[in-house]
Write a structure and sequence with these properties.
The chain has helices at about 15-30, 50-55, 70-75, 95-105, 130-145, 170-190; strands spanning about 1-5, 35-40, 80-85, 120-125, 155-160. The chain is an alpha/beta fold. The protein has one domain (about 1-190): Flavodoxin domain (Rossmann fold), CATH 3.40.50. The longest helix has 22 residues, at about 170-190.
Length: about 190
């Protein structure tokens, strides 16, 4: 069993990455293989609405000269997908949405439904506001892709601006811990 966490933050070891690493650490305690996939430094362009994925029906995107397929292949092979984004201007980062928009379109063409019944959910960090919108924005991606999202003790959000500040948000840490525990419990329950 494999879990991936995709970090949409351009910052190395920022607050979003801290929470995602914590989530993966909890999952690994249940003998689930884990991998953190930072999007920083990757070139993932937005969907061009060319419709080629619908026409080709081969599970690939027409845009070949970026890093999309590298991440998309890992998403397809994972059992659990967690995505994390900071909130810089009221929503998820453009890098994250470029990946998710293309992955969603390509995964639903040709009857593949690559993400159907996989487990996962979002994690969001902001300094002050924008958590709810961004959490919902990312959550909707999981739901439209027929995925299973377990709950937690609160929404998977944290407060922090400077790197490491989220580690002082005890409620965020407890929420992410419980989210990861629920992911592991559900994954292991379904796998028996």
């Amino acid at each position: 069993m494999k879990a991936i966490a995709i970090c949409g933050s351009p910052r190395n070891n920022g607050n979003t990455e801290i929470l995602l690493k914590r989530c993966l650490s909890k999952l690994s305690e249940s003998s689930i293989g884990t991998e953190l996939i930072p999007l920083r430094g990757k070139d993932i362009r937005g969907c061009t609405a060319c419709g080629s994925c619908r026409e080709r029906k081969d599970g690939t995107c027409a845009i070949k000269n970026d890093d999309f397929h590298e991440v998309f292949d890992k998403m397809k092979s994972a059992d659990i997908i967690v995505v994390g984004s900071p909130v810089y201007y009221g929503s998820a980062t453009p890098e994250m949405m470029a990946l998710l928009d293309r992955a969603g379109y390509v995964s639903r063409t040709g009857g593949f439904d690559y993400f159907s019944r996989k487990l996962g959910g979002p994690v969001v960090v902001a300094r002050r506001a924008g958590h709810n919108f961004t959490f919902a924005q990312l959550l909707y991606w999981f739901l439209i892709n027929d995925m299973i999202v377990p709950g937690s003790t609160y929404w998977n959000i944290g407060f922090g601006r400077v790197p490491g500040e989220v580690e002082s948000d005890d409620e965020a840490l407890a929420t992410v811990d419980r989210f990861a525990e629920n992911l592991a419990w559900l994954a292991l329950s379904l796998n028996t």
